[in-house]
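Subject: two folds for Thursday's group meeting

Dear M.,

Sorry for the delay on this. The cluster queue was jammed most of the week, so I only got both jobs back this morning. I'm pasting them in the order they finished. Each block is the input sequence followed by the predicted structure tokens. Could you check whether the formatting survives your parser before we put anything on slides? The first protein is the one we discussed after the seminar.
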Amino acid sequence: MSIIKVSDKEFAPFIPQEKIENEIHRIASEIKRDMIDKEPLFLVMLNGAFMFAAELFKTLDMPCEMAFVKYKSYVGTQSSGQMNEMLGIDPETVNGRNIVIVEDIVDSGRTMNELLKDLNKKGAKSIRIASMMFKPNAFQYDYKIDYIGMNIGNDFIVGYGLDYNEYGRNLKEIYKIVE
């Protein structure tokens, strides 16, 4: 891994693919332990969590369903402070279900907080959160993230589904911005 350019920014190597995949397999084991008999509905947050979700589902050999939701709050390297629902989910799909939200990264927690409110309004039986990355120093809420791959600092990162202005999602490793 060496410094790369994504759009107009440079990024340095941060987390290799092998470490990412090891953490995802650990998370899958924990989810299976907790949810094996609950037939969960996994809600994958698009676009960023698609690679995390794909690897996670390859290792989950249990009855479950998958659906996708999409919210947008980032513009460039900063959160806009506004959450826009781009692809929602039907209340009948959620009502009475055990939900596991699959997210690429939780930083401030604002988007997740809004999704949690929405799922509770729609009658979810239980809700758990699985996030590949978590920025504890940026987190502003008090809900629990049940399954965390890695805690990281407040660096802006790309790769393995994470983007900078929609570029860099296809990288197999995770890189952090060079300031």
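Second protein, same layout:
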Amino acid sequence: MENQSQQQEIRNTTRGRFGNLFTFGFLFPAILGASVLLSAYIVSTTFLGIKKLDNVISVSGSAKQRVTSDSARWTGTFSRLVTKDGVKDGYAQMKQDEQAVRTFLDAQGFKDAEISPISMNEWYRNDAKGTRDYNLSQYVEVRSKDVEKMKALAKSSESLAAGGIFFSPGPVEYYYSKLPELRVSLLPAALKDARARAEAIAQNSGAHVGATKSVSMGVVQVLSADSVDVSDYGAYDTSKIEKDVMITVKAAFQLD
């Protein structure tokens, strides 16, 4: 009897162990299949999300217009180099030079020109004695809306040197005063150019360019006529009367 009880207990224990293994073996494929389905769903959802993001195309567009400068600025300096003992006489000479410069500017039709007070800076000679000289100088600034007249003024300033005045002219700087209004008026053309580029890209994929999603304007480029010397930070050329004003936009369009 004792042997029969032990044999029955062994059979029950073995049946329990194999029963658990059988149950796990049956459930494992089901769990694995559910995991695969869940992963497929996640991948499918992610893919759809990416496809939605891909339905927007971002491109750049630009527009340009030729303008003529409507104002100008011209500067120059005249100076005298004097010794320490000659500072007083140097100031007197500078007053005469200033009068000569004003007479010249008045004759050219620029009576409102600004001339700064005399500025004095030490000038060291490169010698053993360390002799000090002093540079006396004055700054001239002329502004006008007559750009052609300003151009002629800069050329004629050479006559001051012929009169014994140490005059150093700067270049004429040309500006366009209606730049803010022009920038706004060029926006539609730049956006149209961006859409045309988007359509050219989408044409190969069979997509249709739909509504505008977003638009941002880039820096303004004011270039000399026919120049391509653009800058990432914007440019403003003042050396030429004729200029090309260019704006850029970055636009995003819906793809249908």
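Two things I noticed about the second structure. Residues 17-32, 36-52 have pLDDT under 50 and may be disordered. Residues 71-175 form a domain with the Alpha-Beta Plaits fold (CATH 3.30.70.2970).

Cheers,
T.
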